[in-house]
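User: For my dataset I need records formatted as: sequence, then structure tokens, nothing else. Please produce one.
Assistant:
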Amino acid sequence: MNVFDILGPIMVGPSSSHTAGAARIAFVARQILGEDVTSAKILLHGSFAQTYKGHGTDKALIGGLLGMYPDDDRIRDSFKYAKEKSLEYSFEPTDLGDVHPNTVKLILTGVSGKNIEITGCSIGGGNIKIINIDGIPVDFAGNNPTLILPHKNQPGVIADVTKILADKNINIGTMKVFRTDKTDYSIMVLETDELIDDATINKLSALDSIIKTMLIKPL
């Protein structure tokens, strides 16, 4: 065990699962969106839905959407900061089906009008999993630099992406590809050992097969 396992995450709030985990889910969702959030519809499942006010899950989610880390003292007043930033939001208890009890679905709109739907679970100790992006099941934690690449279903896409990373001497730790029969694109998720620079992101974005490029930097 390491110190994090024994002491838990450094955080604001009473619960690593309901507060720190919630803040991390929202923080990662903001990075996936790639810009400031102007509107958020927040669907709460299971114990999140039952205790979100008492455990500060609501404030933690808004804080994360504003770019606050789980240990940011401003989370306690995140509603005030949301008003200052003109962030509109709503909370709605719901049933998201057979998922972890601490699950939230975030329906977000950014300053440019970009929309995205992200579902994440807080699985304990401040750890999270993102399990769905825009209707496509995924599975990653955001603990390492993570590339999320929605791309066209066609041969050679993975080879093109991995070559760009290899040319930059960026090592891939894990790589998964997710798809459903209902869409004409897949989502590639790559966790890397090194941070990815803007020039590499631009090269990836320039590929005809890549629909968009999203990068998560670990907390």
